[in-house]
Amino acid sequence: xxxxxxxxxxxxxxxxxxxxxxxxxxxxxxxxxxxxxxxxxxxxxxxxxxxxxxxxxxxxxxxxxxxxxxxxx
Length: 73
Prior knowledge:
Blueprint (H helix, E strand, L loop, with lengths): L1 H14 L5 E2 L6 H9 L3 E2 L7 H9 L15
Parallel strand pairs: 1-2
């Protein structure tokens, strides 16, 4: 069962490995470590705080390209 988890984690990390930063509502230490090993930083934020987090991230030096406006469905 742990092997399946590791495969799923590796697949998920591979899918977003081209990102500079992700803003999940929750992230475990093993996932955070796996992402960081690929150069992806993660910062946990509450869902209702996402716009505030994006504005703060956009004004920081943590990412190298502009952040697009979020699409809210």
